[in-house]
Amino acid sequence: MKDTEFKGHIGKTIYESEASWPIENKAPDAAPNIIIALLDDVGFSQLGCYGSTIKTPNIDTLADNGLRYNNFHTTAMCSPTRASLLTGRNHHTTGMGAIAEWSTGFPGYSGQISKRTSTLAEILKPHGYNSFAIGKWHLMRMTSATSAGPFDAWPLGRGFDRFYGFLGAFADQYDPELVEDNRVIKTPNSEKYHLTEDLTDQAISMIKSQKSVAPEKPFFLYYAPGACHSPHQVPEEYVAKYKGKFDAGWDEMRKTWFKRQKDLGIIPPGTELTELNQEVTPWSELDQDQKKLCARMQEVYAGFLDHTDAQIGRLISFLKDINQYENTIVIFLSDNGASDEGGEFGNLNIRKHYSFISENFDELFSSFNDYGTKYASNHYPMGWGHVGNTPLKWFKMDTHGGGIRDPFILHWPKMIKSAGEIRGQFHHCIDVVPTILDYLGIDAPTTVNGIEQEPIHGQSMRSGIEDPASITPKRAQYFEMLGDRGIWADGWKAVTRHSKGTPFDKDIWELYHLESDFSEFHNLAEKNPDKLREMIDLWWIEAGKYDVLPLDDRDRERSASTLRAAARERYRYYPGMARVERMSTPNVSNCSHVIEAEVWLDGADTEGVVLSAGNRFGGYALFCKENHLYYTYTFGVRDSETVISKDPLPSGKVSLMFRFEKTGDNEGKGKLFVNDKEQGEIDLKKMWPVIPNAAGIHCGHEDGSPVCETYQAPFNFTGKISHVDVVVGDDQVIDFMSEYREAVGND
């Protein structure tokens, strides 16, 4: 630890005094660099070295020169896995029982990492490490993701020296909403821009800067690009590589990948391929257009993963260039299994899925050429998610194998001498931190910043790294996600897939002996009722120990608590302000509201955004163009309604207003006013039922994806804005739970 005690002598003058310098933090000799490379929504089989036909040569090389694990587990969802991975504690204990947006006010579901569970960056800081976080954070309540903070849950508040990335669940790859350190920054404006490339550039830049100044100092890089979470967006040249490669469909591709897994030895020889998940339509039952669309979406995903692999290759190549390759621990994994969020035929606009809005097949097919581009926020059909989890059951957010068993690669040339081997010991993401600390010879601190710490829950993986015949030191590991539950103990696993809205005590538990049944194929519950009862009882013990309770099977509805806490009646915005994150913006869905701006106009030349909320995938904008006032409401790409002032705009000080009156559920009439004179009317009958803006709010400018194609970003206001007010009417929905239930059609 840093010693700040002065040990010299202070006399009357410098000539009678003896100086003493504080002892600086210094890492152990030959301490390795550490990179945790965390992908998003990449299932057990989606890497080439885990059986896929998708090209991942750089990740495969890490596996060939390191260790692959086939029995490594996560929490089934992104924020919880990230919290456990960075702290070494179970996700509920950290406060991340679900994703950050779904906090509920209970200890296990606070929506950000508890101060009682220090991150690896905080642990390493007093031991001479610099720590950099790149990409997706998603470990804080999203109402804190503004320029007003508080910043104690941002990356720099949790031990990292630098951060570049995004704070929420996912980002547009072409027009991301970015943060650097503790400040919101503008979206880069370049036709050739891609987020994953930018993040890799930033990671390399941070390491270059550190090694240029302190070459002996080790670094910890948390590299979490957000790929391959939706939206699946990637340059067409990567997609073109896979044209026709998936035309056989998901039924046959599961068989192909399953055979490859056996040939690679990544699954045991006796493993059985589970049946097609009952929610997935057999490929043979699709018509030709449906097959064409579904194959295209998988081609886009494959290109996205291929492109991500290329960026990882750039990072590894850079380590070689600066002579840091041999002594860098690279830990590669995914945060959960492949996702079924795309539904039967995929999504064009994933925001609609999260807002309970369905997209019909004709709409999806008509946008065939948009997938992968900036005009689609797409996700593939669930059938491809099932392929991605081969040979396992179910998906992301499930506690069966498809949700929680994920690829894991450990690469450390200086230490690992059994390159290319496969390890089968049971491990969990809470085991990563204690493994790193074990190799560094560092004890987890009992207090951090004066706060007593929860003990590390994970177990070091070191014995299995060095001896393939060793058994896992873990004795039990629970799982819980959105009401789904599971428990592993001594090779056995009990698991239940809960149906949302049904009584928990009616759930049917299954029992598997994973030591002999890798894919959870043979349910032994009826044959071994005593063992099942023992396992269920153990689950309840673990649940009580680690803050799992109360059980909660809600998902998107949980956002209601966050929205309710942030709700106000009046908002005032100023030009030049940083972007306001969407969860902290006025909730103007399904209620009357007014947008009013006090501006100075310079005549016919005045143009630009007065106020915009969202982007081309959903939102609204008040702006000036061609000497007229515009208001546009966007329901999706190329699906907007616009009203334009009938008279040209005057010069000088002007009042601009849009007034919306609700006339029914998710419909109403809007009117434009200039200096209190009505200038136009719009009849909106197709509106977002919850949170209309797919991105944050801008005042006086817009960067990134524009709300509509009438203008192109950046679109700065060329006049002068005093302020813009948004006033939400008396019919604002405060009972957000009722609003969500209504949106989903469930009373």
Descriptive account of the structure:
Helices cover about 25% and strands about 20% of the residues. The protein is an alpha+beta fold. It has 3 domains: about 425 residues, Alkaline Phosphatase, subunit A (3-Layer(aba) Sandwich); about 70 residues, Arylsulfatase, C-terminal domain; about 180 residues, Jelly Rolls. The strands form 6 sheets. A 10-stranded mixed β-sheet has the order 7-6-5-4-8-1-9-10-2-11, with helices on one face. The model has no long low-confidence stretch (mean pLDDT about 95). The longest helix is centred in the middle third of the chain and has 34 residues. The protein starts with about 30 loop residues before the first strand and ends with a helix.
Q: Stretches where pLDDT falls below 50 for ≥5 residues? A: none
Helix content: 10-25%
Structural class: alpha+beta
Predict the CATH topology of the largest domain: Alkaline Phosphatase, subunit A
Question: Quick one: how many beta strands?
Answer: 29
Strand content: 15-25%
As for the number of domains, it is 3
CATH superfamily of the largest domain: Alkaline Phosphatase, subunit A
**Main beta sheet strand tally, sense and closure:** 10 strands, mixed
CATH architecture of the largest domain: 3-Layer(aba) Sandwich
- First-last Cα distance: 57 Å
Mean pLDDT: 94
CATH class of the largest domain: Alpha Beta
Tally the helices.
Answer: 17
Global geometry: globular
* Strand arrangement in the largest pleated sheet: 7-6-5-4-8-1-9-10-2-11
Supply Rg. Answer: 27 Å
